[in-house]
């Protein structure tokens, strides 16, 4: 059997997305069909539309989602029809080098559904990050579904599927922020704001938010920043050092993805401190640093893939904290929109007006 559902498709480079009817197959072995309830609009979706990821048009956009499992294919035991799940784009394989070494959050061989979703004329769709959730239903690998408490709102829960998890994870997993640490976060959009929340959740004593947009800094304060720096008006490195007794922060999280902000992060950290790069650079970007400074300042320079999260470990835990009132996921939902408003949401994202627009179905 197949299902015909409405979905947001990007047909060509730079062209506005369109709402189309697509065909979704019933789940095969190891797959799950998920009825989507909410899906956040992420930069990566826009990136796909602009041809910045690859040229495999048409794309089925959307990858930051929560919904209910409608049916599962042969051999699926981890999730069952009726389960409320958050979708993840790194379904761990259990067999690759990273998994074998007991570090599944780095899995080098994550997987997606094998069967293809198509347009009505049979053209195969490429789902964004192997998900494609700006759709009434989508087909994923069962390992991409993580069951969480149904009491959570779908709009808030879905955000853990990408940007918010990347930010929180950059702080708690990659940065290993601990009680009493000083943390600076450069770039306070959806990802950076989540890093601030994560640092605060982990017990950081000082959380310094840096951005060039005062709206983002106001918001950062609400999410747990103890200090803010507008780096258009002040030198970010100087300001962070001043706020940390002249030394720099224990952990600096770069959530912009640019060489100049990475350099700020590099020099704004204390000796033997940690830099976490969670912002995603573009292919032409280059970084130049005196090698002596890399040596002399010591510590760790790390990248954070998807917040180095392990969905099965982190999603249910963070949803529990949300339901206990200890993690304000609702604060990241700037607006909820309909499926046909994704293009408008891209516009607002481009202007920096939102942390997240979330499509609610
Ligand atoms: N210095 C400080 N902040 C900056 C600078 C700069 N030079 N340039 C931009 N910013 C701020 C913006 O004002 C904005 O608040 O960085 C923030 C970026 O936020 P968003 O555009 O909302 O992006 P977000 O979803 O948070 O993602 C940030 O992480 O996952 C990656 O691909 C994503 O590279 C992107 C980054
Ligand atoms: Zn994303
Ligand atoms: Zn693996």
TrEMBL record:
Pfam families attached to this UniProt entry: ADH_N, ADH_zinc_N
Source superkingdom: Bacteria
GO cellular component, one term: cytosol
Gene Ontology biological process terms from the UniProt entry: formaldehyde catabolic process
CDD domains: Zn_ADH_class_III (cd08279)
InterPro entries cross-referenced by the UniProt entry: ADH-like_C, ADH-like_N, ADH_Zn_CS, ER, GroES-like_sf, MycoS_dep_FDH, NAD(P)-bd_dom_sf
Record-listed E.C. numbers: 1.1.1.306
Cofactor dependency: Zn(2+)
First-tier enzyme category under EC: oxidoreductase
SUPFAM superfamilies recorded: GroES-like (SSF50129), NAD(P)-binding Rossmann-fold domains (SSF51735)
A molecular function (GO) term: mycothiol-dependent formaldehyde dehydrogenase activity
Domain Enoyl reductase (ER) residue range list: 14-361
Recorded family membership: Belongs to the zinc-containing alcohol dehydrogenase family.
Annotated protein name in UniProt: S-(Hydroxymethyl)mycothiol dehydrogenase
Native source species: Streptomyces muensis
């Amino acid at each position: 059997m197949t299902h015909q559902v409405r979905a947001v498709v990007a047909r060509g480079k730079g062209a506005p997305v369109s709402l189309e009817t697509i065909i979704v197959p019933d789940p095969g072995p190891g797959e799950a069909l998920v009825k989507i309830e909410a899906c956040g609009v992420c930069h990566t979706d826009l990136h796909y539309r602009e041809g910045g990821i690859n040229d495999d048009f048409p794309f089925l956009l959307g990858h930051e989602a929560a919904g209910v499992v409608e049916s599962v294919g042969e051999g699926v035991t981890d999730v069952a029809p009726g389960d409320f799940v958050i979708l993840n784009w790194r379904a761990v394989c259990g067999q690759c080098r990273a998994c074998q070494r007991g570090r599944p959050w780095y899995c080098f061989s994550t997987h997606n559904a094998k069967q293809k979703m198509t347009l009505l004329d049979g053209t195969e769709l490429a789902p964004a990050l192997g998900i494609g959730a700006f759709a009434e239903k989508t087909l994923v690998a069962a390992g991409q579904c993580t069951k969480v408490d149904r009491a959570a709102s779908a709009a808030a829960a879905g955000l853990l599927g990408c940007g918010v998890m990347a930010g929180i994870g950059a702080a708690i997993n990659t940065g290993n922020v601990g009680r009493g640490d000083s943390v600076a976060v450069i770039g306070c959009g959806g990802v950076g704001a989540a890093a601030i929340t994560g640092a605060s959740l982990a017990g950081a004593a000082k959380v310094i938010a840096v951005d060039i947009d005062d709206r983002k800094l106001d918001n950062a304060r609400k999410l747990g920043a103890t200090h803010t720096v507008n780096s258009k008006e002040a030198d970010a490195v100087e300001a962070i050092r001043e706020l940390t007794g002249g030394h720099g922060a224990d952990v600096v999280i770069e959530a912009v993805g640019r060489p100049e902000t990475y350099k700020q992060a590099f020099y704004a950290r204390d000796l033997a401190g940690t830099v976490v790069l969670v912002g995603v650079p573009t292919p032409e970007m280059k970084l130049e640093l005196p090698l002596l400074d890399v040596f002399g300042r010591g510590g760790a320079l790390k990248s954070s893939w998807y917040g180095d999260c392990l969905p099965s470990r982190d999603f249910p835990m963070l949803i529990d904290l949300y339901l206990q009132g200890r993690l304000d996921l609702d604060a990241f939902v700037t607006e909820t929109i309909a499926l046909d408003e994704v293009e408008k949401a891209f516009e607002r994202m481009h202007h920096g007006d939102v942390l997240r627009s979330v499509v609610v179905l």
